[in-house]
Design brief:
This protein is mostly helical. The chain is 67% helix and 0% strand. The chain is globular and about 50 Å long.
Amino acid sequence: MLTKLIAYHRPSTTSESAAQGTVTARTSASDWGLLLIRLTFGLLMAGDGAQKLFGISGGQGLTETGKGFAALGYHPGKLFASIGGLSEFLGGLGLALGLLTPLAAAAVIGVMINAMATVTGAHGLWATDGGVEYNVCIAVVALGIAATGPGRLAVDRFFRWGTGGWPQAACALGLGGLAAAITLSL
């Protein structure tokens, strides 16, 4: 009897249960695990964006970050620093809340593609050499969240895209890649 009370399971997703979008008392460990990943990853991304935008927690702030962007060839640097910072900040918050998850993932993926193309790509794979390792990890986690969906403990549970899937992953990767390509071509 006690094991029945303690046992949690995730019922199979049906169109009826997905349409209801309710958080039941029977949330599973995977629901809570996904929430933990989203909160940790999303809030850290939002914090990184806030460092660029507002200079909090030891960040350089928008003016200094803009100078760094200009040195990388982004002109005007402050505008591109704003776009990058807002993408990280809003994308991170969206992932943390599970709100507009495919778009939030796209924002993060786009910034990471730009970072790989302009900063880390020339240094190989490993972060110890200044390579793409860290950027790839961030982009893959964002894509993974879009593919699996934000889970039942998310704002998106009320919307069709809240269940994740191939279309949501394709949207995140496609929009992120498109945004990066446009930014890199300017």
